[in-house]
Amino acid sequence: MIIDTHCHLDDNRYKDDLNEVIKRAEDNGVKIFIIPAADPDTLQKAVQISEANENVYFAVGVHPYDARKYNRALLEKFIEHPKCVAVGECGLDYFRLPENEDDIKAEKALQKKVFMDQIELANRYNKPLIVHIREASHDSLEILESHAGKQGGVLHCYNADHELLKLAKKGFYYGIGGVLTFTNARKLLDVYPKIPLDKLLIETDAPYLTPHPHRGERNEPSYCTHIAQKMAELSGISLEEISDITTQNAKRLFRI
Ligand SMILES: [Zn+2]
Fold first, then answer.
1. How far is the CA of 6 from the centre of ligand 1 (A)?
2. Cα 219 from Cα 226, distance rounded (Å)
3. How confident is the model over 34-66, as pLDDT tens digits?
4. Ligand 1 centroid to 206 CA: how many Å?
């Protein structure tokens, strides 16, 4: 079996056929799902989906794009829920920064503050982190090295970077998604062999980052098999072995 450790099932794009999406995934061997919270507006929905489906879990968090909507009290309201397995996705994203110098500074400062507050929350409640990093490896590494607790977490790493491999020793895992199946994913293909097998996780990031051969379509957890297939090929092991290893890794990290 496979665990999709990062799928946004609370996204509006599944509102009409969520049950079919889950069923298709299960038929493909994807048996457990984790919904990372991104937007505080859909957190309630993630909680509801987890309550309605035994094999769906969620995380509480605020994506760096939504840093302005950060509301610690809302996260604390759900963090002790029995289906809450992590804090995230939180992190830093410098891909879409404002134009002028002062605004850039303010944006980075806000993202860092919100990220650090969520790390503190994870440490306090002993939950692993689900971390989003884009064009911000250096700052993220600095913050995680000095603040993250021993419960570790996962780096949602479509934006792979050698620098971030250091965090494997600090209890961090690496979430591998559809980007690995892209022929132009040179950076990730270069980093992938350096990630220890016991630190690999599978994630679709559905509805985003759809793997080959479905690029252009809405992504969904059943496509985990395409990612697993590519990982097995690159690691020189069978599909069954990579599925087993990543499932054990996910169970260990998220304690499920
Ligand atoms: Zn995501």
1. 6
2. 11
3. 999 878 788 999 999 999 999 999 999 999 999
4. 7
Name all domains of the chain by residue range, CATH numbers in brackets. 2-254 (3.20.20.140)
Paired strand residues for 155: 131, 174
On the CB side of 174, CA atoms within 13 Å amount to 27
User: Which of 47, 51, 127 has the alpha carbon at shortest distance from 87?
Assistant: 127
Amino acid in position 159: N
Locate 218 and state its tokens: 């809405």
pTM of the predicted structure, to 2 decimals: 0.96
Q: Concatenate the DSSP letters of all residues of 100-115 into one string.
A: SHHHHHHHHHHHHHHH
Q: How far is the CA of 63 from the centre of ligand 1 (A)?
A: 8
Distance CA 5, CA 21 (A): 15
Q: What's the token pair of residue 67?
A: 């840093």
- Judged on CB neighbours under 10 Å (0-12, 13-18, 19+), 99 is exposed
pLDDT digits (tens, 9 = 90+) for 108-154: 999 999 999 999 999 999 999 999 999 999 999 999 999 999 999 99
Per the listing, tokens 């799928």 go with 7
